[in-house]
Each structure stands twice: as structure tokens, then as C-alpha cells.
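Work Package 4 report. The design task specified in the project plan requires that, given a folded chain encoded as C-alpha cells, an amino acid be chosen for each position. We show below one input record used in the internal validation round.
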């Protein structure tokens, strides 16, 4: 009998969940310059919090990870990253449930969504300049 060994490499991809209307409202309310400042600061904060949440997971610091992830979700919602905001709530639910396996998977999904959303928003800003 011949045994064929194959390893399947999965490359999950998360499509950015951007809400352009939310961005338009933000820019209409704040003006172009202040709107851009707010979005840039939010993007920096999101990038930092994504990394921080991952480190907190590795350390097993669930209470701090919960705080970090909730804040991440609120920031994401403010700038129209509805998908990231929704997944951050799922991560918090996994922490609350004490489900480490689901937390690991959901955190990985949040990081993927966060990265794709940040890239999409960056590209969107490049188009508008």
C-alpha cells in the first residue's frame, strides 16, 4: 500500500468590513482635516491594540485582553470598521465564556480582519488625497 502524504495549507482571508457612510458622516461632522486626523489616530491605535490583544492572549491575561478588545471594537465602530467591531464583540464573548479554543480562533480572525480593514482604509485614504 502506498501512502501519499499531503499537507493542506489553509490561507484564511478576511474581507474588510468598511462602512463608507460612517466615514462620510465623520468627515462631514469634523471637516476634512480633523476627520483625517481622527482616522489616522484611530488607525494607529487599532494597530497597537491588535498587537497588544495578541500579547495579552499569549500571557493569559484575560481581564486586560477583554478591556483592550472592547476598546478596539469601540474605535473600529467609530471609523466604520463594522466587521472588526463585530468580531471584537465575539472575542469578548469567548473570554466571558472561558472558551480558550474558540478564543484562539476568534482572536486570529480579529487580527486578520483588523489587518485587512486597516489596509483597505489606508488604500481608501490614498484614493481621496
Amino acid at each position: 500500500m502506498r501512502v501519499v502524504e499531503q499537507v493542506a495549507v489553509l490561507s484564511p482571508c478576511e474581507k474588510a468590513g468598511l462602512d463608507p457612510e460612517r466615514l462620510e458622516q465623520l468627515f462631514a461632522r469634523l471637516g476634512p482635516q480633523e476627520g483625517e486626523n481622527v482616522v489616522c489616530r484611530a488607525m494607529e491605535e487599532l494597530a497597537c491594540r491588535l498587537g497588544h490583544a495578541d500579547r495579552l492572549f499569549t500571557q493569559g491575561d484575560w481581564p486586560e485582553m477583554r478591556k483592550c478588545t472592547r476598546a478596539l471594537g469601540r474605535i473600529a465602530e467609530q471609523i466604520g470598521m463594522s466587521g472588526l467591531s463585530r468580531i471584537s464583540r465575539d472575542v469578548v464573548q469567548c473570554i466571558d465564556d472561558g472558551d480558550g479554543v474558540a478564543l484562539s480562533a476568534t482572536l486570529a480572525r480579529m487580527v486578520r480582519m483588523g489587518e485587512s480593514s486597516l489596509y483597505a482604509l489606508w488604500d481608501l485614504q490614498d484614493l481621496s488625497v
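The helical segments are 20-30, 32-59, 62-78, 82-97, 100-128. Validation will be extended to a larger panel in the next phase.
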